[in-house]
């Protein structure tokens, strides 16, 4: 039997925390270990409980979610941080990724979409939509992508996988599309990140939007 992923919720609104708990309570893959009302509490509780996943709101008193994320990822890099927000502000999204967050969830998303996204985060196959990649492209063009190697350094297979990442496919979907093992896809993506000097799947998708599509 699989041990559930331990989740810490950080949001200053009790109704919001309750809504998140209701989304997760019927999903055996996740169990909630604690709740925080601000960024400072989130940092303290991460140290106390060492959760697998932190769901943290951006706008909180004492210390906001982005500042808390930066500190938490520096102290506990193994914790997967998912930023929660009511808007898809590209500046917040870009900053959260810079600080090491693994994902960005909108509070008004359908609960089933929440669960599907969280499952993809923990299995490492989280998809990046072309819309998200497009929104971040300008930011990465001026910063993260300006020193990346030429596309000619990539193998044909790596280019195929990079293109499919930019189309929002998960690792499993890419594997099925190319008739290869899912672990092979994971290895290719790791090699792509290393070769291009990028840090995460969002940056890969943005790279593909600029250089391949």
Number of separate structural domains: 2
- Classify the fold: give the CATH topology of the largest domain: Rossmann fold
Q: Quick one: overall form? A: globular
End-to-end separation in angstroms reads 42 Å
Q: What is the architecture of the largest domain at the second tier of CATH?
A: 3-Layer(aba) Sandwich
- What fraction of residues sit in β-strands? 5-15%
> What would you call the structural class?
alpha/beta
Draw up the topology in text.
Elements: E1 5-10, H1 14-24, E2 30-36, H2 39-49, E3 53-57, H3 65-75, E4 80-85, H4 90-98, E5 103-106, H5 111-122, H6 130-142, H7 156-166, H8 171-178, H9 182-196, H10 201-211
Parallel strand pairs: 1-2, 1-3, 3-4, 4-5
Description:
There is one protein chain. This protein is an alpha/beta fold. The protein folds into two domains: 5-122, Rossmann fold; 148-211, Winged helix-like DNA-binding domain superfamily/Winged helix DNA-binding domain (Arc Repressor Mutant, subunit A, Orthogonal Bundle), CATH 1.10.10.10. Helix content is 53%, strand content 13%. The chain has ten helices and five strands, in the order E-H-E-H-E-H-E-H-E-H-H-H-H-H-H. The chain has a five-stranded parallel beta sheet, with helices on both faces. Helix 2 packs parallel to helix 3. It is globular. The protein starts with a strand and ends with a helix.
